Amino acid sequence: MTFLYVILAILLFGLLVGIHEGGHFLAAKACGVRVDEFALGMGPALWKKQKGETLYALRLIPFGGYCAMAGEDEASDDPRAFTSQPPWKRIIILCAGAFMNFLLGFVIVCLLYTSAYAFRNAQIEDFMPGCPYQSEEGLHVGDRFYKIDGQRIYQNTDVGDFLDQGDGVYDIVVLRDGQKVTLKDFAITRVSYEGESRKMYGFYFGYDLATPGVKLQNAWYTTMEFARWVRMGLRELIHGRVSVDEMTGPVGIVDMMAETGEQAETVSDALYSIFYFTAFIAVNLAIMNMLPIPALDGGRVFLLLVTWLIESVTRKKLDPKYEGYIHMAGMVLLLGLMAFIMFHDIVRIVTK
Q1: 301 pLDDT higher than 80
Q2: Which of the four pLDDT bands, split at 50, 70 and 90, describes residue 190?
Q3: Is there a catalytic annotation at residue 21?
Q4: What is the reported pTM?
Q5: pLDDT value at residue 14
Q6: Domain 118-209 has what CATH class?
Q7: Sign of CA dihedral 292, 295, 301, 306
Q8: Where are the domains of the chain?
Q9: pLDDT at 1 over 60
Q10: How is 279-348 classified by DSSP, letter by letter?
Q11: Which of 25, 56, 51 is nearest to 40 (CA)?
C-alpha cells in the first residue's frame, strides 16, 4: 500500500499547486490580463495544447507549476500586460493563489466533517469532584472558553494546550450567558484527583450536535487552527527554537503523507488522515506564500505597494525590470533553500 499512498500524495500535492496557479489564472483572466502559458509541473512538457492566446501544459516534474502572464516583470506597451494594470488588480491576481489554497483547505475539512454526528466543544459541562476552580468568582458550569492569554480557543484541546504552556496564571475570557466574562490573573494548574493516575484541570467538556451550521463552524475553526500552527511554527523558526534542518519540502511532504496513510489501522482511516494533512498543507502554503519575501507572492505584493508609494511621491514611473531583478535574486536564493531542504528530506527518507 505504501506505493499507492505515495502516488496519492503526489497527486494531492499536484492538486495544491494546480489550485494555487489556477487562482492566479482565473484572477488574471477576470482582470483582463493576457496569460501566455498555464502549466502544471516543471521541466519538459508531457502534453500541451494552445487554446486561444494561452498555452496549456502538463510537465514532467509534478512539484511546481506556473501561470505566465504577459509583461509580468517588465514594462510593456500591451494594455493587457500584467504591469499595465492598476495596483489593485495586480494585488488581486497575486493574492488569488494563496486565497485558493486557503479555500481548498477549508473545503477539504468541510468534506471530512460531513459524516460527523457531534463535536466536542470547549464548554464546561461539569467539574470533577473537588475541583478548586469552580466558584462564584471563578469558573461556572456552562462557561465556554473563548480566549486564554489572548489566544482564541477554537477546540476543547486548545484549553489544555495553552494552559500547559503558561506559568500557571492566565487572563481567561469565557462566554457566560451570552456575555464575555474576563477572569484576570486567574491561577490554574493541573491537580490530583481521587482515582486518577495523572494530574488534571478537572473539567468535563460537552458536545455540540453536528448540524450543518455546526459542521461549517467547526470546519472554519479547524482551518483557523491550522493557520495558528503555521504562525507558531514561523515564530519558533525566527526565534531559533527550530532549525532550517527541521524544515521540509515537497519530497518530505509526500513522504509524510504516505507515512500518515501507512500508520492508519484501516484504509478509510488512512484516507481521512491523508486528506486532513492535505488540508493543513494547503493552509500552510497559503500563509507561507504571502510572506513578504522576494519571489513569493507576498514579496511581490510588498514591492508593488512600495513601488506605488514611491511613484505617488516622486510622480515618476519606475522601470519594472528592477523589481524583476529583486525577484530573480530572491528566486535564486529560494531555489537554493529548496535544494538544501530536498537534500535533507532525501537523506531522512533513506536513513530512517
Answers
A1: yes
A2: very high
A3: yes
A4: 0.85
A5: 84
A6: mainly beta
A7: positive
A8: 2-112+272-351, 118-209
A9: no
A10: HHHHHHHHHHHTSS-TTSHHHHHHHHHHHHHHHHHH--PPPHHHHHHHHHHHHHHHHHHHHHHHHHHHHH
A11: 56
